[in-house]
Amino acid sequence: METQIMNQIITKDQLLTHWQGHRTLSRRTLEKFPEKELFEFSIGGMRSYADLVKEMLAIAAPSAKGLETGKWEPLDEDKKDLKTKEDLLQAWDHATEVINGAWKNVPDEIFQKKVVAFGQYESTGYGLIAYAIENEVHHRGQGYVYLRALGIEPPFFWERE
Fold first, then answer.
1. pLDDT number for residue 4
2. Where is coiled-coil annotated (predicted)?
């Protein structure tokens, strides 16, 4: 059965711009953390912001690549090689480049088709990107709570450029 795209609300490029706006804000949140607290501070048993960033990295670029190629890497949230704030920032910037490069080749129709990402998450292509954005917003919110508990003003959530 052929999938039809009807009544499109936003374009693929607008979706990418929206996503990258969130990613820019999440990067600015990461920049605000002092090195030690980035890896060690938590509240109520939640993971450190470094671990949350590693999860965001495990989802973002691999999702764009999976939609582009139809091939899915296993979900790798450990990212043991990312041991410093600078490592995380460089990985974030690399992921941004990967997303932007892959996005050009993501076929429009994949957003309406079912995909099974990471061997476990079944959704449409659009649903997968919505999940990636929602997951990031959720974890960035945790980061905001951490920053406030540390006496650090988080970035304004509406400034996504």
1. 56
2. none
The reply, when asked if residue 139 is annotated as ligand binding, is yes
Which amino acid is present at 68? E
Q: Rounded distance, CA 62 to CA 55, Å?
A: 11
Residue 5: closest CA among 124, 135, 153: 124
C-alpha–C-alpha distance, residues 74 and 92, integer Å: 19
What is the chain's alpha carbon radius of gyration, rounded to the nearest angstrom? 16
Indicate the fold that domain 12-149 takes in CATH: Four Helix Bundle (Hemerythrin (Met), subunit A) (1.20.120)
* CA distance linking residue 40 with residue 49, whole number of Å: 8
User: Which pTM value belongs to this model?
Assistant: 0.91
> pLDDT, tens digit, for every residue of 139-149?
999 999 999 99
Residues of the chain where predicted confidence (pLDDT) is lower than 50: 1
